[in-house]
Design goal:
The chain has 154 residues and is α/β, with parallel strands linked by helices. It is 42% helix and 23% strand. It contains 5 helices and 6 strands, in the order E-H-H-E-E-E-E-E-H-H-H. Strands 1, 2, 3, 4, 5 and 6 form a 6-stranded mixed sheet that branches. Strand 2 (57-59) and strand 3 form a beta hairpin. Helix 1 crosses helix 2. The longest helix has 16 residues, at 21-36. The protein is globular and about 35 Å long.
Length: 154
Amino acid sequence: MEIHDLITPKSVVAALRVTSKKQVLQELARRAAPICGLDERQIFDVLLEREKLGTTGVGQGIAIPHGKLAALSRLYGLFARLDRPVDFEAVDDQPVDLIFLLLAPESAGADHLKALARVSRLLRDKATTTKLRGCDNADGLYALLTESPATNAA
């Protein structure tokens, strides 16, 4: 599972303007709906339910909200760089500015976990996150996200 299997240039947002965690989830659902062909409310509800189980703010300014939806036939991703960090109730209590949304079919057990692990590995790489934070356009962000795997980074 590679990042380019999850996102397209159209699913990368360079400067998402939001002021709260709820607004982040609403905006991600709104933008993901046309990409995966589902209703934005359905996506938002799944993301909200997942957040009730525990925050997807993994620390160091990163969140990986995710959910499973029966109507999906494959995995979908959406990456957003926020114009300003927001409180995401992250595990380290730091505000979040880099978000990778992952949506999966309900039947995608192992694939869903592999995709989460791949995204997590990529966003744990300090050099990658520094570059992502320094880039202000969607094409550049897409290129950074889909270039060589973080596991090969020096």
